[in-house]
UniProtKB/TrEMBL annotation:
Taxonomic lineage from the root: Eukaryota, Metazoa, Chordata, Craniata, Vertebrata
Identification of the protein by name: C-type lectin domain-containing protein
Origin: domain of life: Eukaryota
Domain C-type lectin, residue spans: 148-271
Coiled-coil region: 84-139
Organism: Electrophorus electricus (Electric eel)
């Protein structure tokens, strides 16, 4: 009986195992399955959102970094533009200064050239003046001649007629003296040394029309009182320093001219101009 019962139990166990190993039948869905699906969906969405958020963060970071770089670049460009404008302004100022300096330089160069020209010209003038001074000294230092106001005067030692005296003056490169001022008359009076002397005044061409040997008519006169009188009828030449025997009124001690016969013999006074 015991063996039979044991066999029955084994048979039932085999049958149970066969039942469990047989094909499974689908189980109906429950609320837990829906919950688990929602969780999986939420987790997926959350992951997607995280990915999008991370992507957005990266994009925003890149954008702001780009914007910041752009702002820095714009700031740098503006600063560069300002510096460029400043440099351009400084360049323009320097250009103006350079132009001014160039103008000053050109003016100084012109002044230098002018000074050089003046220096050369003054050097030539100096040489010319030295040459003329040497010539003047030679003319002034001629034996027997006296210098007075740009002219040289010579009083002869030999008495001759008026015509011979004039010829003698011409041979000396001069002519009988012409007197054009009171000072010159005073100098001639000093030069004659109390001698009567021929001067270059005559009315040979026309009686009473007195002219100097250079052709100029008489304008300044230093006649003795009562002269000229053509006393002998042919007194056509003039001497200076005449001392009449008779007493005459004296108006001026420089009034010493007297008309005289041209053939009479007196010393003479020659005059020649010199260039200064």
């Amino acid at each position: 009986m015991a063996v039979t019962r044991d066999m029955d139990v084994r048979s039932e166990g085999v049958h149970y195992q066969n039942i469990e190993k047989g094909p499974k039948t689908p189980q109906p869905h429950t609320g837990g399955d829906h919950y688990r699906g929602a969780l999986r969906l939420a987790a997926g969405c959350l992951g997607l959102i995280c990915i999008l958020q991370a992507t957005l963060n990266i994009v925003l970071r890149l954008y702001f970094s780009f914007q910041e770089g752009k702002d820095l670049m714009l700031t740098s460009c503006n600063n560069y533009s300002i510096k460029t404008d400043q440099l351009q302004t400084q360049y323009n100022i320097l250009t103006i200064e350079i132009d001014k300096l160039q103008t000053k330089y050109n003016n100084l160069a012109l002044e230098k050239d002018q000074l050089q020209t003046d220096y050369i010209s003054e050097g030539r003038e100096k040489e010319e003046l030295q040459k003329r001074l040497s010539e003047l000294r030679e003319n002034i230092n001629q034996p027997g001649w006296k210098y007075y106001t740009s002219s040289m005067y010579y009083i002869s030692t030999e008495e001759k007629s008026w015509s011979e005296s004039r010829q003698d003056c011409r041979e000396r490169g001069a002519d009988l003296v012409t007197i054009n001022s009171k000072d010159e008359q005073a100098f001639v009076e000093m030069l004659r040394r109390n001698k009567s002397a021929w001067i270059g005044l005559t009315d040979r061409d026309s009686e009473g029309v007195w002219k100097w040997v250079d052709g100029m008519e008489l304008t300044t006169e230093y006649w003795l009182p009562w002269e000229p009188n053509n006393y002998l009828g042919n007194e056509d030449c003039v001497i200076v320093g005449y001392q009449p025997e008779e007493t005459r009124p004296i108006n001026d001690p420089l009034d010493t001219w007297n008309d005289y016969v041209c053939s009479e013999r007196f010393v003479s006074i020659c005059k020649k101009g010199i260039s200064i």
